[in-house]
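Second attempt. The first submission of Putative dehydrogenase had a stray character pasted in from the spreadsheet, which I only caught after the job came back as garbage. Lesson logged: always re-copy from the clean sequence file. Corrected sequence (390 aa) follows.
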Amino acid sequence: MSRKVRLGIIGFGAQGSAYAKFITKGLVPNVEIGAIADVDPERRVVAADEHDVPVHADHRSLLAGGEVDAVVTTVPHYLHVEIAIDALGAGVHALVEKPAGVYTAQVRDLNEFAAQHPELTFGIMFNQRNNPLYQRIKQIVDDGEIGAIRRTNWIITTWWRPQGYYEQSEWRATWGGEGGGVLVNQAPHQLDLWQWICGVPKSVSSKVAYGFRRDIAVEDEVTAVVDYGGGATGTFVTCVHDLTGTDRLEILGDKGKIVVDGSKTATVTRLVADERELSGDMGMDDVRKLFQGDLDPTTYYSQEVLEFESAWGEQHSGVLENFAANILDGTPLLAPGSEGINGVRLANAIHLSSWLGREVPIDFDESLYLSELNARIRQEGVFPERPTGA
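This time the job returned cleanly.
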């Protein structure tokens, strides 16, 4: 292999064509386009016009062509697992788009297959893990700078989509074609970051609206409450009908707090001691001063504002470059493909809780989830029901 990875782009829609531009513009110096595949003849014409590489009618033809060392799957969600398994089975490294799949049983099949091929690189496009702001926040939490997490809140409603968006294609916003709505289309990055930074919860309880403000079958409004154990809880709120939108993450620990606004800036508060220790050391005179406004609370903490520059395309191209570096020299992956199941599991648990009307454990019955999903696919009457595995 040369010092550049020959990448096959499977699916030449908005995302696939964007990755091709990143590569041709030199944003991913250790990658070159080896081939492109798309099932749409019109997209194949566009690909051939824009890039002087072999263009194939499907992923199987591309994998058989011998022109690539690795592939990235920019296709509808259900196909990520099938194509990644086919690629790994052909001895080709695989980078899957988010989400890794639609349901955990499907993604588990992919993880188990990938584990049988440790010589191949298996990654996932969690480009937000390449955001220096979230990398720093994770480091702060992991290092215990704000103590043990007591509460998390993420409201992410910057996904406004008009009705016309959902009418682009028949698979969009369907159970059988896409596998869900805002949880599987817009919010997978936040679901991944939430558990990546704050930890995996023990159980989930949710209130989800389906076709609330859009004429669709899947979810367009979500409120979920998670239980981390030990009294720690978290909330996740998202929707597609908030025209102005909000993106705010709060992580409260017993020794501080992190507040992220717009995924651009973060205010980190570090207490001088554990909050309960500060509370216990306050006498009645301190309480009187507190209520009279004579107590300066800033003596109990310090604050730091974090902000990082992020150029256009830098996060996605950085994941592509890291994926290629792992292939070429073993550089550790920013986002191992095996971790894609975590966000899928959270989305599944949120769905299942709303369908059953009760709290569900994070290690829910996967067969029950698939049965409930297939019931909705069957009701749509457009797409085939989904098997247990890929």
